[in-house]
Amino acid sequence: MAEPTLTVGILTEKRVKFALFGDFTTQSLPGIFNGPYTAEISNGKVKIANKSNSHLFESGIIFTPSLPADESFLINDVTIGVKFHWERKEKQSFRGSIKFIIEDDKITVINVVHIEEYLKSVISSEMSSKSSLNLLKAHAVISRSWLLAQIEAAKIKKDLTQEQKGMIISDSEIIRWYDSEDHQNFDVCADDHCQRYQGITKFFTDSAFAAVEETRGLVMKYGDEICDARFSKSCGGISEPFENVWENTHHPYLVDIIDYKFEPDGYNLDFSVEKNAIKWIDGDPHAYCNTNDSAILSQVLLQYDRETSDFFRWKVVYSQEKVKELLKKRLNFDGGDIIDMIPVQRGKSSRLIKLKIKGAGKEIVIGKELEIRRALSDSHLYSSAFYVEKKNIIDGVPQVFVLHGAGWGHGAGLCQIGAAVMAERGFQFDEILTHYYKSVDLVKLY
């Protein structure tokens, strides 16, 4: 098998500023292209212009570098952390080819790049490229596996409707999830919705390059299937099975894992019993990801991630008015005063799969975990592993809701902070992988 090439969606805007560093060519026009340009739509076509010339292209355009290893392109104002609490814009540089297409009356920029070049950036964008080698190697295998699994899955799933995927959208219930096959015109996006990919903008170290080179072509397989290797920042002590986060498909390698060498003492892990979930969320169990070691955290949490410090156990306080505002904005739900938020179903990590919002006028059930996190935050809650404390109740109406929570992210697959701790304690990359993914084999594809 030859090394695959993939397409990565970088951004979609009305107007894009970019610069080509080196000698780029296109099949549509003769000559060499370099320097600064803009891309926008003009009369239904892609218009590429600089100070002296402009060109119109019917169905998009690809600029290809003459020397891919040495030449690059820069894009202005790339949004990172889309809809997260640390969302911001950056200038980012990339290797490979740059493609422009029209989507919904906007310009979409796509990077066409070899998978191993992509991975060098991913493991330096998802975490610090100064991380320990075994952590970086583990993440290279995970990212490679996930990517190849997604490309195969998208061939089957991308044309399915929400109903065909098993989602429920009605006045009384919203059960849906979000995955990378939502993208129609490229393989993956560049943000957290897929995997963070920020080109060559990030500072690469010898360790980052070595992690990719030393695991070149290596993936995890379960039987003949390339593993859909998910990961999140902090599982909170126990990882979450795949089917509780996305579609109702069981993957034997993505199940609940105690993030330690033994089960925690003093806890009943049957979280279908709410008092057990509350005790767990209020607790401080032994877990690899239960750490405040700044040296370890700096490997996984980049500068904007470190704006969050209470990832293992956290608390959010909302007024009655704020909850109503969020539910109106996020779900278009207007049920009057919010009387209660009631767990309907919890997963193995205590994450909520379904939550009932009970208003004075009506109620609604929402899920899965990301839908819940989006509904109750201006960006995203850290996770859906939380319980709700009602305070200052007047005539049966709580004036304050306190959300007590655990973990950061969906919790399925590898726990990045836990894996960083394992690497610091001397675990090899394959030991880290087989801790978080059960009964997998490491297989070299190319």
Mean pLDDT: 91
Largest sheet: 11 strands, mixed
Helix content: 10-25%
Roughly how many Å is the radius of gyration?
23 Å
Q: Termini distance?
A: 5 Å
Give an account of the 3D structure.
Helices cover 22% and strands 34% of the residues. With 446 residues, the chain is α+β, with helices and mostly antiparallel strands. It has a domain at 6-113. Strands 1, 2, 3, 4, 5, 6, 7, 8, 9, 10 and 13 form an eleven-stranded mixed beta sheet that branches. Strands 11-12-20-19-18 form a five-stranded mixed beta sheet. Helix 1 crosses helix 2 (133-157), helix 1 packs across helix 3 (206-214) and helix 2 packs across helix 3 (206-214). The chain is globular and about 75 Å long. It starts with a strand and ends with a strand. 44% of the residues are buried. The mean pLDDT is 91.
List the helices and strands and how they pair.
Layout: E1 5-13, E2 15-26, E3 29-42, E4 45-49, E5 54-57, E6 61-65, E7 72-80, E8 88-94, E9 97-103, E10 106-114, H1 115-125, H2 133-157, E11 168-169, E12 173-175, E13 188-189, H3 206-214, E14 218-222, E15 225-226, E16 231-232, H4 274-282, H5 294-300, E17 313-319, H6 320-331, E18 338-346, E19 352-359, E20 363-367, H7 369-375, E21 386-394, E22 397-406, E23 414-415, H8 416-424, H9 429-436, E24 441-444
Parallel strand pairs: 1-13, 12-20, 16-23
Antiparallel strand pairs: 1-10, 2-3, 2-6, 2-7, 3-4, 4-5, 6-9, 7-8, 9-10, 11-12, 14-15, 14-24, 17-22, 18-19, 19-20, 21-22
Helix pairs in contact: 1-2, 1-3, 2-3, 2-9, 5-8
